Hints:
heterodimer; A: mainly alpha; de novo design (two linked rop proteins); 0% strand; B: alpha+beta; ten-stranded antiparallel sheet; 9 helices
Amino acid sequence: MSTSLIIIIVIAIILILMYNSLVAKKNQVENIFASVDTQLKKRYDLIPNLVSSVSKYMQHEKSILEEVTKLRSDANKPNVSDKQKIELDAKMSSALGSIMIAVENYPDLKANENVMHLQRSLSEIEEQISAARRAYNQAVTDYNNALEMIPTNFMASAMNYTIKDVFVIIEEQRKVVNVKELFDKQ
Amino acid sequence: MKSKSELTDFYYKSLFPVLKILDEDRKQLRYRIILIGIGFTLIYGAICIFIFSAINAQLDILLFAIIGYIAIGGFIYKLLIKDYTAEFKSKVIKPLISVIDEKLHYSSKTHIPKMLFNRSDLFSNPDRVSGNDYVKGDLDGISLHFSDFHAEKQHRDSKGRTRWSTIFKGLFLVAEFNKKFKGKTIVLPDTAQSTFGDLIGNWLQANNFKRDELVKMDNPAFEKEFVVYSTNQIEARYILSHVIMSKLLRFQKNSKHPVYISFIGDYIHLAIYYDKDMFEPSVFRSLLEYKVAMEYVDTLHLATGIVQELKLNQKLWSKE
C-alpha cells in the first residue's frame, strides 16, 4: 500500500472521530436539556395551586404573585427557545424564593397544611432542577470547549455549531449553610 | 447521637472500674507475653543452631527459619491475648456502642454480610471474606451496619499454587440514604488524575470500561480528591449536592485514609481502606491512656457520625 493512501485513511479516521465526538456532545446537551425541561414543567405545574393558596393571605405581595403567573404563561407559550427557557427559569427561581420568604411573615399561612405540602414539593423539585441544571452546565461546557479548541473548532464551524448558554447558578445555593456564621452574625 | 466528649466521659467515668480490672489483667498478660516470648526465642534459637550445625545451612533455610519464627510467634501471641481480647470487647466496646444508641447491636466475631460488600460494586467480588466487630441496628431511625472487613481474591501461580491477594481491608459501612434514586453512582479516590496529571488522567477516567459514565463534578476540591462514575448524570448530581460533596470531603479528611463510596439501591456504602483492626485492645499500652481511649472513641465516632454528618436522618419528603 502506498504511503499516501495510509495518510489519507488516517486523516479520514481522525475526521470521523472528531465529527462523531462533536455530534455526541451536542446530543448530550440536548438530552440533558430535555430532562431539565421536564423538571421545570413539573415546577410550573405547581404554580396555579401555590398562587391560589397564598393569594388570600398575601395582600402586599400581589405583584410577585402576578409575576409568577405571568412567567408561567410565558413558559407555556409555544416555540419558546432554550435560551428563553433558561432566562425564565432564573426569573422564576428568584420570584419563588421571594414568595417562600414572604410566607414566613404569615403565621397562618406557614401553618396551612396545603402550603406546607406545596413548600415541600417545591423544595424537592428545586433539588432536582438544581441537579439537572448542573448536569446541563457540564454538558454545555464540554460542548463549548470542543467548539473553541483546536482541532475540533474547524470541524464545528464547518458544521455550523454555535456556542450555547449555561444556567447561571445563584451563588447562595452553592454555599453550605454555616451555622457558626449564623450565630456570629447575631 | 453522642458527641466525642460525651463518649470520652463515658469511657473514663462509667467504664473506669472495669478498665482498672482489665488493666491489671493487661499488666499480667504483658508480663506473661514477655516471659513466654523470651523462652520461645531461646528454645527456637537453640533448635536452629543445633540443626544448622548438623547440616550445611544455606541462605534459603535461614530465611525459612526466620519466617517460621515469625509465624509461630504470631500464633502464640494471638492465643495468649484471645481471652483478654474477648473480655475487652464485651466489657468496653459493647457498652460504648450501646451508649451511642441502644438500638445498635454489637457482635465481636461476625462481620458485614458478603452480599452487602458485593452489592456496593466498589471492588471486584471476593473469593474469601473475613472480619469482626460487626455493629448493626438503627441510629436516629436510620439503618446502619459497619464492621472490619477483609476481602481476598484467589489466584493460581504458574506452579499451580494457590495465592490470596487482598481486594479490600478496613472499615466497611452501609447506611440508608435520605434521597430516593434508581441508578448507581460510585465515588472513588482519584488516583489517575493525581498520578498522570489532569489531561491524561481525565482521559483514562473517561475511558474506564469497567465503570459507567464519568461524571465531572463542579466542586474543584472534590474533583481533585475523587472521581465519580454514574449510570445517570443528573441523578449523580442530585445525590452529590454541593453540601454532600463538601461533607464527604471533610469525612475523607477526618478518616485520614482512602475512602470509597457508592450509592446503590437507596443505600450509601462506604469503605475506608486501612491496615489496622478497629477495636483490638492494646497490650503494651495502658487502657487508661488518653491516646488509647481516643483511638476507640474516634473510630466509633467516625463510623456512627456519618448519619449525623450527612444528615441521613433528615429524610426528604419523597422518601417518607
